[in-house]
Amino acid sequence: MPNCNSSTLPIVLFDMDGTLLDLSFDDFIWNQCLPERHAQAHQCTLQQSQETLSQFYQQHKHTLSWYSSKYWTAKVGVDVLKLQQEFQHKIQPRSGCFKLLQQLKELGYRCWLVTNADQPSLKLKLENIALRPYFEVMVSSQQLGYAKEDVGFWQSLQQLHSFDPTQVVLVDDTAQVLAGAKQFGIEQLITITQPSSLKPVRELSSLNYPAINHLVELLSFLPQSQVKDVDVKTA
């Protein structure tokens, strides 16, 4: 068995929603529940509500406001955080989530959680899914003042927690986030083929980055000596 020093391993940066957690929860909240509650609150039809919210979404997509429960509560007149709390039982991990995190922990990898979820939403999800023990660092874009799509996020993250962009692996389901990270200098970028179980698997040809579905597939992108260790332990 190779002699492995954790200091020589890349840091693995994980997105949360759509990567470690099933994006179906967020799809359900934003595309089904919120339009229904918005229609009730404003006494309009569901179709009118969907059209209004769709316009709002397009205006703010990939910005810090897009991920803010407080912003959307004020914007649409529905308590978005309360809505998430009401249906928190629907928050679920993606396939292989804990198996992968446990294997990485055993192999000595340092794992960081980097999410666009605002701090109240992050707190809610961590209360339902026990991710915390596997992560050395957990950062919300709200803390840094930039969405992950913005290179400013990665610059601020590096100032807060020093790291070498060439010595990290980022796993994220959003192309715009991966593009921002690439602009910053992160080269090892991996995406997800099916972020939400409510939507079909995305075609590999439509993705600009290496892609995985079951999270344990990530091991094949990490140093091969480490993968062999995992195979021996789990055989």
Protein architecture, described:
This protein is α/β, with parallel strands linked by helices and 235 residues long. It folds into 2 domains: 6-22 and 93-234, HAD superfamily/HAD-like (Rossmann fold, 3-Layer(aba) Sandwich), CATH 3.40.50; 25-89. It has helices spanning 24-42, 46-60, 69-76, 80-86, 97-107, 119-128, 141-144, 151-160, 175-184, 224-234, and strands at 11-14, 111-115, 137-140, 168-171, 188-192, 211-212. Strands 3-2-1-4-5-6 form a 6-stranded parallel sheet, sandwiched between helices. α1 packs across α2 (46-60). It is globular and about 60 Å long. Residues 225-235 have low confidence and may be disordered.
List keywords for this structure.
single chain, 235 residues, alpha/beta, Rossmann fold, 2 domains, 6-stranded parallel beta sheet, globular, disordered C terminus
